[in-house]
Amino acid sequence: MIDLLTTRYTYVLFAALLVVGLYIVIASSNLVKKVIGLNIFQTAIFLFFVSAAYIEGGASPVIHGEGGPYASPLPQVIVLTAIVVGVALTAVALALVVRIYSEYGTLDEQTLREVRADE
Q1: For each successive 10 residues of the chain (119 residues), what is the average pLDDT?
Q2: What is the pTM of this model?
Q3: Which of 51, 73, 108, 119 is 20 to 30 A from residue 83's alpha carbon, by CA?
Q4: Burial of 3 (0-12, 13-18, 19+ CB in 10 A)
């Protein structure tokens, strides 16, 4: 068990980030904290993709003439695209949070539900 944790530590880190991000999204009532939790969750998914694509001793598929296993660049391309999309979604989410705060004066989810129910 210890050997598995020391050799596959990125998967342990992935699981820890996933649980922390999910907990923040579920347990927090503050909208900014929810956005931060989503970013942590998203980072865990990125780590999982990169860790799963890693090949011990893998060579770049661009270099010809080298033998051995080749690492696929596709997961890195997908993660790079997801990072760009994630940054854009974070910017939109934070802009919405700023707009909600200026309109209602609070970022607490329960208070917002009460205010919306009174309207």
Answers
A1: 76 94 95 96 94 78 69 86 96 97 92 87
A2: 0.83
A3: 108
A4: exposed
